[in-house]
Structure formats: C-alpha cells, structure tokens
Amino acid sequence: MGINRRIGVFGLGSMGYGMAQSLLRAGHDVAGFDLNEAAVTAFQVEGGLVGAQADILPDLDIVVIVVLNAGQTRDVLFGANGIAQHLSAGTGIIACATVAPSFAKEMECAVNAAGLHYLDAPISGGALKAASGQLSIMASGTETAFSKVRPALDAMAQTVFELGDVAGAGSAMKAVNQLLAGVHIAAMAEAVTFGMTQGVEPAKTLEVISQCAGSSWMFENRAPHIVDADYTPRSSVNIWPKDLGIVLGIAEQAKFKAPLTTAALQQFQAAVSAGLGDEDDAAVAKIYADNAGLVLPGNTS
Fold first, then answer.
1. How much is the average pLDDT of 184-194?
2. Which residues are catalytic?
3. Candidates 1.20.1600.10, 3.30.2350.10, 3.40.50.10310, 3.40.50.720; correct CATH number of 6-166?
C-alpha cells in the first residue's frame, strides 16, 4: 500500500474538522463522523468519503478520535455503538482528547486486546494550526502503533514528539502543557485588567508587554481578543474546568500541590457560572473586570 490511506476522523469540531481537512489535502481518503450532521455534510462536500459508517469502518487503515474527553473517547471505541468491534485487525487508533495518563493506559490495553493499535496522542496548536497541518502532537505508544499511523501524523502535525513506547506519557505531557496554558490565560486576563485599574488601556498593555519579558504565547494570542472585544470561541472557557480538573486530579494522585492551577481553575469556574462557558477563553477577563467594576472594550457599562 502506498502513501494513501483510508482514514476516519471521529469528531468534526473546531480541531477535528481542520485535522480532517489536512488529511484530505495530503491525499488521503478521509471519512468524517460527528453527531452534527451539518459538519459531516460540509466535509463530504469538500471531498470527504460518502457512505454508511458500517460500510466504511472495516476498510479504514487509521482512525483519529478528536472528541472532548475520556468518556467520549471510550464511547467512540467501546460504547453501545462503539467502532472497535467493526474495525479490521491492525487498524491504528490516534486518540487526541486531553485525558489522564491512567485512562490512556487503560484504553491502550483494551484497544490492543481488540487487535488494534493505540497511540496516546494529545494535540496542541488551536484550530488554525489544525487546519493548516501544523499541530504539535505529544505522542506515546508502541513502535508498531507509530508505524501504522505515521502517514496521518505527517499530514496533521508540524511536530510530533515521540515520548515513549507505552500510552500515558503523551497525556502526561499534555497535562503539563494545559497547566501552563490555563494559568497563562488567567494571568493574561489578570494583567490586562490590573493595568486598567492604573489607567492603562488593554491595547497599550498588549503593545508594550508583547515586547517585554512578561509576555507569553497565550498573552500575545489571547489579549487581542479582549482588545477587539471578540469572544468568538477559538478555544472556549468550558475547556478549562475540564482540563485543569484533570491536571489537579493527576496532581492529587501524585500528592503534589498545584496552587497556581487551583487559582486559575477557580477563575474559569466563575466564568462558566457567569454564563461565559461558550465564549472564547479570553472572556475570563470579564470576571476580573466585573469584580473590579471595570468596563472592557466593547462594553457600554
């Protein structure tokens, strides 16, 4: 078999849709599956495979699972309509959700027992990089699993970090990343609104701090959303109670205290409680602003 593979992508959200596009652009035959039928139809119009899932599954070489959490990952594979029983022996599974390392290890055992190959492969980079095939993938799994899914990794990622020969290491590294990312977003929001208490407008904070030592990737990526009053969700507030909750769960098991993560989690939880869960995660700044009586750009009061 040549470079072309038959690949099924389960989850056509903001990340999964872009990843499916990248796979299609690389010349693979790609089927997209999602509960949102409009997303499935749109992908088929772009060139995705058309047909019943039951007919497509046995012919897949690779499956990419881009869902929200561990529960959805388990359901895709082994739920009431789970796909594992319908895949041909030797199919490679790329599991991309942010999950605890213990869950990744559990799934690897179950998938291997079904005659399939599991790669623990959380992703980072956002929707734009997903659509351009420039993700970072933190992967761990057997040499065979890597070999089986390599064509898909090459199409979706700019960088693949190979972190070990058993599942769990990829998810552990993703937890480290999410700890930093969540804390940095909360710190960005705190810094921008703190500046406002001193008469420094968010646009000026962005201009100056982007050129100073206090900057971060998250600051430079998310602060413009506040300046532009654009809370269209590239990455939603709702993601962070889940992901930082996973981090703290891992920390608890390790008897490790993570006070900065705890503080950031509280701010995102407050944002969800305030009805901001579906907004861009930069909207956590609204919690700081409301608490201080500040008016963010785009607000009239």
1. 98
2. 174
3. 3.40.50.720
